[in-house]
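Memo to structure team: turn this sequence into C-alpha cells by end of day. - J.P.
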Amino acid sequence: IIPGISGSLMLMILGSYRPILHAVNTNDIGLIAIVLCGAGIGIILFTKLIEWCLIHYKTATHGVIMGLVTGTLFQIWPGAANLNSLAPVLFLIVGITLSGSSYFFEK
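Reply from structure team:
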C-alpha cells in the first residue's frame, strides 16, 4: 500500500521474518493461514484508514507516507548497522519535512 514498505520489511522490523520463513519452509499451514488472514485484514483496514486520511488530512498524510518511505531506507541501506540508532528517526523527520514543504509550493 505504501511504496517502500513491503510485507517482508514489516516482518523484519517486527522480528518475525525468520519464524515466518521457517513456517513456509516446513509447510506449517496453520501459521501461514494466520499470517495470511492477518495480512488480508490489515491491508483492507489500512487501505480504508489511508483513504480517510487522504480525504481529511491530505498534506499531513503525504508527509507521514514520505517519512515512512525515507525512514525505511535505513533498513535496506548497506552498512546501516554502523549508523547511529537515531538515523531512522532522522530519515522520518527529513521525509516529513520534505513533504510538508510541498504544502507551501501548492499555494
